Every structure is written in structure tokens, then in C-alpha cells.
Amino acid sequence: MISIDHLTVEFGAKPLFSDVSFVVNDHDRIALVGKNGAGKSTMLKLLCGIQKPTSGSISVPTDFTIGYLPQVMKIADETTVREEARKAFASTIAMQDRLKKMEKEMAERTDYESDDYNALVERFTEEHERYMLLGGDNYEAEMERTLTGLGFERSDFDRPTKEFSGGWRMRIELAKILLGNPDVLLLDEPTNHLDIESIQWLEQYLQNFQKAVVLVSHDRAFINNVTNRTLEITCGHIEDYKVKYDQYIVLRKERREQQLRAYANQQKEIADTKAFIERFRYQATKAVQVQQRIRQLEKIVPIEVDEVDNKVMHLKFPPCLRSGDYPVICENVRKDYGQHTVFSDVTMTIKRGEKVAFVGKNGEGKSTLVKCIMGEIPFTGKLKVGHNVQIGYFAQNQAQLLDENMTIFETIDSVATGEMRLKINDLLGAFLFGGETSEKKVKVLSGGERSRLAMIRLLLEPVNLLILDEPTNHLDMQSKDVLKEAIKAFDGTAIIVSHDRDFLDGLVSKVYEFGGGHVTEHIGGIYDYLRAHNAETIDEAIRRQTEQKPVEKSSIAASADTGATAKRSNGAQDYEAHKAQQKKIRKAQKAVDDCEKRIAKMESRVKELDMMFNEPENASNVGLITEYTELKRALDKENDYWLQLSEELENLKAS
């Protein structure tokens, strides 16, 4: 159990937290929520001891272990996967070394009857018992089981970590934390670099985890499936909701409505009191009443209304020069890391103005091909970047490359040139960094804020080929929508590496699937791609593709080639029809849900009235009888309406 008492954290004049107190219990699964920059990541750093509060205390029991997965990872590139995972057993290995030294000392000494020798034997016995309780020499086998469970092949164990993508590095960090078997897990945006398969694995693991979890994530489905308690950071304090995330959303809305009503009533009371004081301030007969009202006014504690982040990021890519007709052409491109082939025979042509998606499991080569296009790594085959192509590149680790000791303004001022230097404040304001915020140091920014700052770099020079590698990591739902609209309005070509199906929906016209060392082209949007595999998710589509036999794969490729013309003409129409149908289904589902909520509310009131009628004094209450009769009539009508809506929804889903 971790106890937080009267915690205050200050960055500059305004405190981030003030007088915060709460407890993390043994089996809690906590979602830590709040707007970008509210202090979620800072709270995790405080809990694990990386950062110290300005005042207050954090009490952690003796021998209590904490596993912390940060938003930004720092993995040594000179180690292998096995060596990195073995770090989880540092204490066990140190204990093993101490036992070997004591064993050697006992074998060399001959003073068997001395007190000193007996003390050595006792120390060895106690240490050996502890060592065996911790698993003894089995730690290597346990490490291999965990790495294999996370998707690593045994042939991967001795590969350098630098050969792996961000998602696989995240799995290495996860393996280290899980092997340590901590008493509490602190996870800061754990799904950012994971593919859908890994997210589902982690979700299942956390559901079965028998200890405490504190989680920060923008993945609503993930935190709702994992957590049972929600802590919201708002207005510099903590609001504790003992419910799942979806229920928290409902309760928070109700709470804010109550706050707004109470705030309005208090403002009216303050206004009336001030009006009374001003009116009778100079009348001797009212002096006592005036003084009473002044004292009342001084005693009023202002009601705070929970802050809602209604600010909107404004993003527009600048006009770009016209590039050649084919910005990227690949012919038989191949990339190997030692004996490991990432992909081979990659042949693709990306036309000017196209928006395309790279999808596939982590480690299948999406980011690797991007680096080949950027000219950052060597490869074999032919890869041509077209005439007059100017590339704007947003990498997965872009936010990590920022200088933490510079301010937001200095970060942009150091790379801005020409007229853009005169527009830095306007640009920062469009990305919610206006005013005093621009003087913040990069090191105090959250992951979402760092990603926004890194995104500004793309706007400093006009480009006509955008390459965005997991651009939505760390961005909240609102910022994702703004980025999506900006890319749709972009005049040039865009390559987007993403696992986010909703983000890609309506944005891309072609999908390149990475899997099994090959890259397959699919004409149409992301839902055309999913329908072609009869799948609901990208992960499911990839799994079905890799499970198919080679003959079936070639036949799919052949049908894709022969049917390309038909898909070009019908794909857009089918896609628009699919979108319109999905919109109707969502609208019908919302109507059913709203109706069910009204029915539940009515049924609850009916039960209350039934209980009230059990009291003798209410048996002949005309008002209650009238309400009960009208409520039952309305409930019957609502049930009929629900049946009608449900039938309409089923018909839409079936069509």
C-alpha cells in the first residue's frame, strides 16, 4: 500500500498539485486521468521516487517493489535482448555471486570449530534459503518463458536491441518489469508503441495481475477493460472515483453539472450580498446588518468548477512545391540485419498526392522501410525518391530527440529561419503553447505536449512528402482529429505508419501490409482492406493473411492486380456507402442506448414508489398514485419504442 499525504508540487509560481492525499491499495487498478499537462506522468514519477515533491510525503512499505514503465524509454543499444532482460534479476545474480564467494571461503578455511566459521555457515544458509525462495537458478528459464510469451523467438535473444523497432523495445522493458514481479505496476502510456496483438496480451495480463496497477493511457477501451478505479487530476487536486472509466465519465458529468449549479447560486448570493452592502453602507440604522454581510462575504469559500480542456489545436501544413509524379518508387528492395531478413522483393509506386498507410505487426519492417526511403540505413535493390521531393519526417522517437534544457520558444527559435522567426508566437499559440507556456522547459512537458512541439518542426519549412511514423502516439482524441483533418487537406503526398484504424479511416486511399518478410499492396481505404480479409481489426486482417498458404497468398496478389481497375472505380463508392451505413448504425445504436437509460431511470423511480407505498401514510397519497400511474404508462410506451428502435438497429446491421 502506498500512502500520499498532503502532496504539493510546484513548477514556477503556480503549483501543479496542491495538498493532494490518496492511497493506492494492494489490489487497486487505477486509471490516472486529466487533461494534457495536468501532471499524470509527474504523479507516476513521484510514486516511484524518481521525482521529489515540494512538500508532503509519500509512504511506501519496507521491501515494497515498484515496476515503472516510462513514456520515454532509454535502452542501451550495445546490449542484446537476453542481456537487457537479465537486468531484471540483478539482485538475484548479485546474491548468486555472494553465495559463490562464501562457498569458496568455506572450502578454503580449516577453522571449522571457530565462532567465525559457524557465523559464516549461518550467513550462507540464510542467504541460500532466500536465493531458493526467489527461484534460485531457474531465473534463466523464467526469463526465456516471459520473452517467448511476449512474442520473441529464441533466435531473437542474442540480437542487439538496436535492431528492434520501438514496439519490440517496449516489450523488452515490459519483460524486465514483469520478471521483477513488483508489488505495484506504474505504466505511462504503455500502448503507444504496441501493436494490437500486444495490447490485447497486456490487457489480459493486467486483468489477471494480483497486485496494484496505476495506469496512464489515452486508449479508452484499454483503460476501461483494465481498471476499477479512476483518479482525476483537475484544478491541481485529485478527485477519486471508485468506478471504471466509462462510469467515471458519467459521474464526472453529473458532478460538473452540480458544481455549475452550486457556482451559479454562490455567485448570485455574492452579488446580492454586495448589492446590500453598497446600498446600505452609509445608513447608520443598517450598520450592524452591513457588518454582518461583510463578515459573511469574507467567510465564503469560492466553489471551484472542474476544468474542461476545450482548447483546440489549429494545424495547417503550409503550401508546398509540386513534386514529380512519383515521389517514391521501390523495385525489389531488401533489408537484412545479419541473418535476419526484415523484408525482401518490395516493389511499390506511390503517386503524387496519394495518402497511403503502412500497417503490420511491430518488427515487420514498417519503420525500417521508412528509414530506407529517408536514406538513413543501407539496403539492397532500387529505391528512387522522385524529382523535387522535399520530405517532412515525424519519427516515433521524435519527441525524445528534443533538448530537455531548452524552453519551448528556444526549441522552435533554434530551427526557424527567415519570416517564420517572426511568426513563432503565432505558431506556438496554434499548438496551445501560447503566452507564458512558451517559457516552460521541455523537460517538464508531458508526452502529448512534447509530441505537439515536435510536430511544429514539420511546419517550419514547406514539404511535399509527409512521412509520419506513429504520429498519434501521446495525442489525445481531440488532437488526433485535428491532425487527421490537416493531413486530409495537405496538398502533397503522405505515408502514414499507424495501428489506429479510426485515424486511418477516410484518410488513406491505399494500404501496404507488412508481414512475413513481404509487403502487399491493397487498393482502397482501411475498411476496404479489412473487408477484403473479412476482419474487424487490422490485427485480425494481418493474422488471417499470415495464416494463409503461399498459394493462396499469390492468388490474392494476382486478384489484386487483375481487379485493380475495378477497385479504383468502385472502391471509393463502396467506401462512402460503408461509411454512410456505419454512421446510420452508430446513430441507431445511440438511440437504443438513450432509450435504455430512460427506461432504467423510470424503472428505478417505479421501485422507489413501490417502497413508498409500503408505508401506511402513503397508501392513499393522491400525488404519488397519480405519478405512479403516469410513470407506468410512460414506461410501457418507452418499452414499445425501445423494441421498435432495436428492430431498426438489427435491420441496419443485417443489411
UniProtKB/TrEMBL annotation:
Residues 2-260, 328-541 form the ABC transporter domain. It comes from the Bacteria. Residues 544-576 are annotated as: Disordered. Residues 578-612 form a coiled coil. GO terms for molecular function: ATP binding; ATP hydrolysis activity. PROSITE patterns: ABC_TRANSPORTER_1 (PS00211), ABC_TRANSPORTER_2 (PS50893). Keywords: ATP-binding, Coiled coil, Nucleotide-binding, Repeat. The keyword Hydrolase does not apply. Gene3D superfamilies: P-loop containing nucleotide triphosphate hydrolases. InterPro entries: AAA+_ATPase (IPR003593), ABC_tran_Xtn (IPR032781), ABC_transporter-like_ATP-bd (IPR003439), ABC_transporter-like_CS (IPR017871), ABCF_ATPase (IPR051309), P-loop_NTPase (IPR027417). Pfam families: ABC_tran (PF00005), ABC_tran_Xtn (PF12848). PANTHER family: ABC TRANSPORTER ATP-BINDING SUBUNIT, DRUG RESISTANCE ABC TRANSPORTER,ATP-BINDING PROTEIN. Belongs to the ABC transporter superfamily. ABCF family. YbiT subfamily. This is Probable ATP-binding protein YbiT. It comes from Prevotella lacticifex.
